[in-house]
């Protein structure tokens, strides 16, 4: 996938659940660069940029 990762991989890296990462994507809370994460259609895997910052890290920095 190159510059993208799956919600499962993101969950593993960020030490959270895949369900939480999917919810962040669906709710627009996880930004992939300057735009929300994307997927082709409902049920398709989310494409999360490797440089995305999860909301828990952003919240903790404030």
Q: How would you sum up this structure, described in words?
A:
This protein has three helices and four strands, in the order E-H-H-E-E-E-H. The chain is globular and about 25 Å long. The longest helix has 10 residues, at 18-27. It has 62 residues and is of the alpha+beta class. Strands 1-4 form a two-stranded antiparallel sheet. The chain has a two-stranded antiparallel ribbon with strand order 2-3. The model has no long low-confidence stretch (mean pLDDT 80). A hairpin with a 2-residue loop joins strand 2 (31-32) and strand 3 (35-36). It is 40% helix and 13% strand. It has helices at 7-14, 18-27, 55-61; strands spanning 4-5, 31-32, 35-36, 48-49.
What is the typical, i.e. mean, pLDDT?
80
Tell me the major beta sheet: 2 strands, antiparallel
Instruction: Return the structural class.
Output: alpha+beta
Question: What is the count of helical runs?
Answer: 3
Strand content: 5-15%
Per DSSP E runs of 2 or more residues, the count of β-strands stands at 4
Q: Please tell me what the overall shape is.
A: globular
Low-confidence stretches: none
Distance between the termini: 32 Å
**Series of secondary-structure elements, N-terminal to C-terminal:** EHHEEEH
Strand neighbour order, sheet with most strands: 1-4
- The share of residues in helices is 40-55%
Specify Rg, calculated over alpha carbons.
11 Å
């Amino acid at each position: 996938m190159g510059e993208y990762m799956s919600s499962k991989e993101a969950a593993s890296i960020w030490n959270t659940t895949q369900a939480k990462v999917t919810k962040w994507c669906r709710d627009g809370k996880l930004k992939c660069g300057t735009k929300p994460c994307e997927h082709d259609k409902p049920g398709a895997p989310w494409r999360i940029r490797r440089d995305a910052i999860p909301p828990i890290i952003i919240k903790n920095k404030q």
